[in-house]
Amino acid sequence: MVEIPVALIGCGRIGRMHAENIASHPKLKLAAVHDAHGPSAEKIASDFEVRSCAEAEEIFSDSAIKAVLVASTTDTHTEYIERSVAAGKPVLCEKPIDLDIARVNQCAKNISGSDVPVQIGFNRRFDPGHAAASNAARSGEIGELRQVFITSRDPEMPPEAYYFSAGGLLRDMTIHDFDLARFFLVDEPVEVFAIGGRLIDPDFMNELDDHDTAMIIMRTEDGKQCHINNFRLATYGYDQRVELVGSGGMVISGNRKPHELQRFSGNRTESSEPYLYFFIERYTEAFAAELSEFANCIESGNTPSPGFEDGRRALLLAEAAYRSIAERRLVRVDEVVE
Q: What one-character-per-residue DSSP string does 272-298 give?
């Protein structure tokens, strides 16, 4: 089998994970890396015995490189998507596409008409449990889908420096949940109501004008409901659960642990191991399946799912939620579009 040469742009923590996944994938091979912070790129290049490119242009102009994976800072995503498409190289870009919906819309115009595959890194769609829940709902196993519940709680607050480029809780963390909501509901949410809280670190959140907790309720045109809740400091671990309720039943995709052994004694019952600690550990299989989707689309030229429009739609929901928080009201998504 001929392996497809893929270049990696962005060599931070998630970039290293992507490098490992590319290198171990049967259809792909890591060909080159680039990072604005040269030592980060050089370290991965050395560890994987590939070329480190001082400038990203080396990647886009190299005809031997057939695809690009973008894991750099969010403010570079639209540029690298556009340059990848212009060079005819399929691109898998981490979420979000950008923090500014206007820039996302402009990027959509700039790449319109191209058939170069553009995939957005909403890896949670590929989690085995979440995917099985979606399949159960779409097949009619639980009857007519009525409600979706998404719980997403981090085990710890990010480093303070992270917040200054993250773009806010709803664009950074909840963006995954907005995409999952669309994935499960199938029909587009048309109304959003959100409340944001500063319950964990109020002083810092006030300084940033950000939130560390949030609850969002959404509704589709035909009345399906979705509830999302986020919390930045779940002391008991990385809490990732999905519940789909239908007219004929319910399915739950629950948390993951290292193993399912339970312990019973005189002072505890059903005691078990903590949840897998954070996103790389919890979604290991999802990241691998996401990469396989990308590899298949490179080979076939098919439109990836989730694609660019999925990334744009998730950001529209985030913008509607922010407007709802600011104006303390139910917001129609088409208000943001207009």
A: EPPPP-SHHHHTHHHHHHHHHHHHHHH
Q: Which residues of 186-221 are buried (b: 16+ CB within 10 A; e: fewer)?
A: eeebebbbbebbbeebeeebeebebbbbbebbbbbe
Question: How far is residue 151's CA from residue 154's CA, in Å, rounded to a whole number?
Answer: 10
What pLDDT does residue 177 have?
98
Give CA separation, 330 vs 50, 113, 149, 231, 316, in Å.
51, 35, 19, 22, 15
Q: Which residues on adjacent β-strands are paired with residue 69?
A: 8, 92
Q: What is the dihedral of CA 101, 192, 194, 215, to 10 degrees?
A: -110
Whether the pTM exceeds 0.85: the reply is: yes
pLDDT at 2: 75
Report, as ranges of residue numbers, the positions in the chain whose pLDDT lies below 70: 1, 338
